[in-house]
Each structure stands twice: as C-alpha cells, then as structure tokens.
Specification:
Layout (H helix, E strand, L loop, with lengths): L5 E15 L10 E9 L9 E7 L8 E4 L4 E7 L4 E8 L7 E7 L6 H7 L8 E14 L1 H8 L2
Antiparallel strand pairs: 1-2, 1-8, 2-5, 3-4, 3-6, 6-7
Bound molecules: ligand SLL.
C-alpha cells in the first residue's frame, strides 16, 4: 500500500505597518513603512520558503525586491498608498511552487479610525495585515519532517 500523501498547513501573516514621520516628514516622505510576510507564531519561514518578492509601485527605485532569506520584509519611506505585489516561492521539496497575492499599503487612517483613536501621531503605527493558510498537499517526507520539527 502506498502511504497517503503528507499534508502540512503553514499559517502566515501578510501585511504592512506604517509610521507617520511627523516633524521629519516632507512632501515625498510622509511615512516610514514595512511590508512583511512572517510565520503566524514567529516560526522560521525559511523552512518552506525559498524567496519572497515584493513588487512596489514603480515610483520606487528598483521596485522589484526579492528576498532569499528571512526576515521577508522591505522598509521604505514614501507618501502614497498602493497595492504591493507579493510572490512567495516555496522550497523545491514542498511540491508547491509559488503563490501570488497583493497586500494594500495603508498610510492614512480613515475618518472612522481618527474618530476612534485620535489623529495620527508618530507613535501609533497603522497596521493592516491578514492571515493566510498555505496548504502543502504533496510534500516529500523530508519536507514534512522539517516542518513538523522532527
Ligand atoms: C497614489 N496610486 O497616487 C498611488 C501611488 C505611490 C507612492 C502611490 C514613492 C516615494 C519615493 C511613493 O511613495 N510612491 O519616491 O521615494 O496615491
């Protein structure tokens, strides 16, 4: 009998965190922000990730940023919001290839958020993140054991 294919689920967080620069802000650099992909409990994603590529707005220098090592994040300063492309490539033995998604960079609180939390300050970051589950269906046993920490 052939063994059932091993399935492993990895929970990840994809998102952005943005700080208003306050007195240090200028016309083109009102915020400092970071876009990231990380394990939901801070697990080391390099066990299953080969690279993460973030596609920034073309107004940034070298807008395609490929990271082959953790932490999978990019920090920049800027003035505007846009959707950031996120491509996550998995290790060869995961049997999964890659996934592509986008994450919205949010710099400015909505009127509702301002009503609730007050005006934006340099101390309170704006975080916009979401939880995703990646299911590896046909992983090799080496991959499966590594992911389970065996
Ligand atoms: C907007 N559609 O108009 C968006 C574009 C682009 C933001 C936002 C570049 C900073 C830099 C930057 O912040 N671009 O050049 O250093 O709101």
């Amino acid at each position: 009998m052939t063994p059932a294919p091993s399935t492993h689920t990895q929970a990840v967080i994809v998102g952005t965190i943005a700080y208003y620069l306050g007195k240090k802000a200028d016309e083109y650099h009102s915020h400092r922000w970071t876009v990231y992909v990380r394990g939901v409990d801070g697990e080391d994603l390099s066990r299953c990730v080969r690279a993460v590529t973030f596609a920034l707005h073309p107004s940034f220098d070298e807008p395609t940023r490929r990271l082959e090592h953790a932490p999978y994040e990019v920090t920049e300063t800027g003035w505007g919001e846009f959707d950031i492309g996120v491509k996550i490539e998995f290790t060869e033995d995961s049997g999964a290839g890659f996934v592509e998604t986008t994450t919205p960079l949010k710099l400015f609180p909505s009127a509702e958020e301002i009503a609730k939390h007050g005006q934006q300050t340099t101390k309170k970051p704006l975080i916009k993140e979401r939880y995703e589950e990646i299911v590896f269906h046909e992983c090799e046993s080496g991959f499966y054991k590594r992911m389970k920490g065996q």
